[in-house]
């Protein structure tokens, strides 16, 4: 069943969000000094992210299932990224974030629910399904007509190739998704001066990739990976 939202509320929320966005990014209002404290109870999955592939080029990405700029970036580079991983060229680390739903006025918390399914798939060891699932999640963001249901998200995982029983994935991994978001939000990426206060954020071998949404992202991404491989 699809969650229904009030179009007027969504329209106003999207307008408000637009005024708060920098170019090609969904920003956060979190104070960098207020990032989540380290916790001994935090799982490695929440802190280290979802790791896919085993190539020499290391790519890290922070993306939110409710961020339209993240959807645009995935549309531009998602297929090439998956190809690089499949070819054994790239180790990809995905950090699903969860703060954009609230900024958009989404009462169904799509960000957390979708991120929970991503973490559940990774925890089940089905990492081959992670990138296809991420693309499906980004392609089916909340709109004025509604939000994907929990069952829809589980179906996306199956469509992406996950065979595990994910019937309790959202209940089981929502806390992991929230903990990961709170850990990273406002935190500086190790080895860089970049702070996670916006998504998407993409780092290739320690170099922050500039997301422009001007039609050049795909070509520049491929060139950056090829240069990192050299």
TrEMBL record:
Name of the protein in question: Protein-disulfide isomerase
Domain annotation Thioredoxin-like fold: ranges: 56-211
Cross-referenced Gene3D superfamilies: Glutaredoxin (3.40.30.10)
Any Pfam family the entry gives: Thioredoxin_4
Entry keywords, A to Z: Isomerase, Signal
Presence of keyword Isomerase: yes
Residues annotated as signal peptide: 1-24
């Amino acid at each position: 069943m699809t969650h229904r939202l009030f179009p007027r509320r969504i329209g106003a929320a999207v307008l408000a969000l637009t005024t708060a966005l920098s170019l090609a990014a969904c920003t956060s209002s979190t104070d960098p000094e207020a990032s989540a404290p380290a916790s001994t109870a935090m799982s490695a999955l929440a802190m280290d992210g979802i790791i896919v592939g085993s190539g020499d080029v290391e790519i890290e990405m922070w993306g939110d299932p409710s961020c339209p700029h993240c959807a645009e970036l995935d549309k531009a580079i998602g297929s090439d990224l998956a190809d690089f991983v499949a070819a054994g060229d790239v180790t990809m680390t995905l950090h699903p974030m969860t703060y954009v739903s609230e900024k958009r006025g989404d009462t169904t918390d799509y960000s957390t629910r979708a991120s929970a399914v991503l973490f559940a798939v990774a925890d089940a060891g089905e990492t081959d399904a992670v990138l296809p699932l991420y693309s499906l999640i980004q392609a089916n963001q909340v709109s004025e007509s509604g939000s994907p249901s929990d069952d829809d998200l589980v179906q996306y995982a199956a469509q992406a190739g996950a065979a595990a029983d994910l019937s309790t994935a959202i209940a089981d991994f929502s806390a992991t998704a929230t903990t990961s978001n709170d850990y990273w939000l406002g935190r500086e990426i190790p080895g860089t001066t970049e702070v996670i206060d916006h998504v998407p954020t993409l780092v290739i071998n320690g170099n922050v990739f500039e997301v422009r949404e001007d039609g050049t992202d795909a070509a520049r991404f491929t060139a950056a990976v090829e240069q990192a491989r050299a």
